[in-house]
Amino acid sequence: MMNNPAHAGELVAEWLEGLKDEGQAITITELAERIQVTRPLLSRIINGKAPITADIALRLHDALGISADLLMRVQSKHSLWMESQKQRPQIQPFFVQC
């Protein structure tokens, strides 16, 4: 498995940075209002402190055109990696894996 894959919020941050470079700057506040979420929630997502949910991914797609599927795949990889770093109970498999 990868080492610490990107959080989906990083993609959103890069997308916003790209828009700014093209002279179409959108603030976090403006985006939060457009997708009808709180600014603190969107800020936590963009800063990698909260996961992107399917609902948020679809809202971001509607507002920015960014792929909701891509956001969810990136978030899933990140979430799996984060969980794999935590102490977990020893689970005995039902079947021996080859």
UniProtKB/TrEMBL annotation:
The keyword DNA-binding applies. Signal peptide: none annotated. Keywords: DNA-binding. It holds the Pfam family HTH_3. Gene3D superfamilies: lambda repressor-like DNA-binding domains (1.10.260.40). The keyword Iron does not apply. Residues 26-71 form the HTH cro/C1-type domain. This is HigA family addiction module antitoxin.
